[in-house]
TrEMBL record:
<dbReference type="InterPro" id="IPR051010">
    <property type="entry name" value="BCAA_transport"/>
</dbReference>
<comment type="similarity">
    <text>Belongs to the leucine-binding protein family.</text>
</comment>
<protein>
    <submittedName>
        <fullName>Amino acid/amide ABC transporter substrate-binding protein (HAAT family)</fullName>
    </submittedName>
</protein>
<dbReference type="GO" id="GO:0006865">
    <property type="term" value="P:amino acid transport"/>
</dbReference>
<dbReference type="Pfam" id="PF13458">
    <property type="entry name" value="Peripla_BP_6"/>
</dbReference>
<dbReference type="InterPro" id="IPR006311">
    <property type="entry name" value="TAT_signal"/>
</dbReference>
<dbReference type="InterPro" id="IPR028082">
    <property type="entry name" value="Peripla_BP_I"/>
</dbReference>
<keyword id="KW-0732">Signal</keyword>
<keyword id="KW-0813">Transport</keyword>
<feature type="domain" description="Leucine-binding protein">
    <location>
        <begin position="42"/>
        <end position="381"/>
    </location>
</feature>
<dbReference type="InterPro" id="IPR028081">
    <property type="entry name" value="Leu-bd"/>
</dbReference>
<keyword id="KW-0029">Amino-acid transport</keyword>
Length: 419
């Protein structure tokens, strides 16, 4: 396909020669001296946006999963076999579905991983279900994926929208910024944003906040001046962003240029988008699943290796792709299988995985959500910022150490998932 952007895939003559050379080098990593046929590698289909409004996040995703792939192979692979991650640009839901099917049919992928776009993740999950192959949805956050659109073959790693709202909401409640306050929201006009708005409305209603206006924003919008003029007219107490990808970056830059006096917070932010906004532009409280200053031994070691390899700190999508491939390698070794039914049953057992945080994580059997800590963060004063990567101050993990991890996740009563 002419639109294909890939770091693995079709076995043309040049690729075959390269793979043959890689097989010869495998002996140095602990594999038998006899050169293995490429079909003996465990092939994993990996889809993520590498272009478009989520492209910057996808770039970090590829760096993270490739780093994990290298480490796993250097340690002997999985069940004595090398793994090969085939990464491609998902582009949009239709293309993502087509490529997912091709990875299974032509490339011989054992299962599928990846994605950041909730819309594309939904499309891939449908391919996975039809083919009865496991899909590890790594970076998509829509509650819908874990709710009414859940299926037996999809497992979700990233924190869902409800958890992001709860993470930021706990900080807003602490600072008396909800009850009786008037909110205006800007929402990404696709499944993720619509889903996030529902979670935000539920939070406002439960805690006495008043939503006085919302604007749906197309994912290709770059000029936010019409929306900022409406905010100026509405004169809210708080502005809340339900945007995604470079939408957030563009909003933050233009919000600072307009000089609006209303505090801005957000229920979704990825750190690459925060970094791109530039020093002095971002403000308020935002949620994250991980940040490179997290003070745990495992996280610090990962950051050190990533910086040494790439010359910059890892963004949260690099971290989450890295730990996702590591936990799948652990699952395959423990289950002694690459079969999707076997792996799914293993993940449903509640096995705890080290994801480089203070508390270990596990998949919940009834909705396939990885249960883990989340964090709010705020923006450092400009005088305290050391470099462009040092803008954010990570808050305390939620839930508190003495609370169950599931306390910030939707309950069975709140979640319509039926596997």
């Amino acid at each position: 396909m002419t639109d294909r952007k890939s770091t693995g895939g079709a076995l043309d003559r040049r690729t075959t020669l390269k793979l043959g050379a890689a097989g010869l080098g495998a002996a140095a990593f602990g594999f038998p001296a006899i050169v293995r046929a490429q079909t003996d590698a465990i092939r994993i289909g990996h889809l993520t946006p590498m272009t478009g409004f989520l492209g910057a996040l996808g770039g970090y995703a590829v760096l993270g999963i490739k780093m994990a792939e290298e480490e796993i192979n250097q340690a002997g692979g999985v069940m004595g076999r090398p793994i090969q991650v085939i990464s491609e640009d998902s582009i949009n839901p239709d293309t993502a579905a087509t490529k997912a099917q091709r990875m299974l049919d032509r490339d011989g992928a054992a299962f599928l991983m990846g994605e950041i776009s909730s819309a594309s993740a939904l499309a891939i999950s449908q391919v996975a279900a039809r083919n009865k192959r496991l899909f590890l949805s790594i970076g998509a956050r829509s509650d819908t994926l874990r709710g009414k659109s859940c299926n037996k073959y999809m497992f979700c790693v990233d924190i869902p929208n409800t958890v992001m709202v709860n993470a930021v909401g706990s900080a807003l409640l602490r600072d008396n910024m909800v009850k009786g306050k008037r909110f205006v929201t800007l929402t990404a006009d696709y499944v993720f944003g619509h889903d996030l708005l529902r979670a935000a409305k539920a939070f406002f209603a439960a805690h006495g906040g008043n939503l006085v206006g919302d604007e749906l924003v197309a994912t290709d919008v770059t000029d936010f001046s019409p929306y900022l003029l409406k905010i100026r007219q509405a004169r809210p107490d708080v502005v809340c962003s339900n945007l995604a990808g470079n939408q957030v970056t563009n909003l933050i830059k233009q919000y600072a240029e307009f000089g609006l006096p209303y505090p801005i917070v957000g229920f979704n932010l990825n750190t690459a988008d925060a970094w791109a906004a530039g020093e002095g532009n971002l403000s308020g409280t935002w949620p994250t699943v991980w940040y490179h200053t997290l003070d745990t031994p495992g996280s610090k070691a990962f950051v050190e290796k990533f910086v040494k390899k790439n010359g910059k700190p890892p963004e949260n999508h690099a971290w989450i792709q890295y730990i996702s491939l590591k936990l799948m390698a652990e699952a395959m070794n423990a289950a002694k299988s690459t079969d999707s039914e076997t792996l799914g049953a293993y993940l449903e057992k509640g096995t705890q995985f080290d994801i480089l945080k203070a508390r270990k994580a596990y998949f919940r059997a009834w909705d396939h959500q990885l249960i883990q800590e989340a964090y709010p963060f705020t923006v450092k004063p400009k005088a305290q910022i050391k470099d462009k990567w040092d803008m954010l101050q990570l808050g305390a993990a939620v839930p508190n150490p003495d609370q169950p991890l599931e306390s910030i996740y939707p309950t069975r009563e709140q979640n319509p998932c039926s596997l």
